[in-house]
Design brief:
Rossmann fold; Two-component system chemotaxis response regulator CheY; alpha/beta
Length: about 130
């Protein structure tokens, strides 16, 4: 896996403010490419169009939720290997379990610090 500075990361979150915050933090990490999607459909299209090393996905994506997107990716042989970090404002047992069963590689509760996000990304890519 690439170092964070060489990583191509896609952010899938319906909230533009959260996408901008994450993109700024990833820019500070020096990521090679940061893409953005505001829905599961946009994320899937972006992942099919170009390779990404990591997907940061919001649990509460509209229409198709984050866990459902993750399940679809894990079923697709061409996309099944992407590392996935799910973010959510909640960490209920049921939510974390659903995310894990869908196939996420990590789970992060909002709000989080830049240092914690960077640590998780390094762990997932390292």
């Amino acid at each position: 896996m690439p170092e964070p500075a060489e990583a191509r990361i896609l952010i899938a979150d319906a909230q533009g403010a959260m996408r901008r915050i994450l993109a700024g933090l990833l820019g500070e990490l020096g990521c090679a490419r940061v893409g953005e999607a505001e829905s599961a459909e946009e994320a899937l299209a972006a992942l099919q169009a170009e390779p990404f090393d990591l997907l940061i996905v919001d649990y509460h994506l509209p229409e198709t939720g984050g866990p459902e997107l993750v399940q679809a990716l894990r079923r697709d042989p061409a996309l099944a290997g992407i590392r996935i970090l799910m973010v959510s404002p909640e960490a209920s047992r049921e939510q974390v379990l659903k995310a894990a069963e869908a196939g996420v590689d990590g789970y992060l509760v909002k709000p989080f610090t830049a240092a914690l996000l960077q640590e998780r990304i390094r762990r997932l890519l390292g």
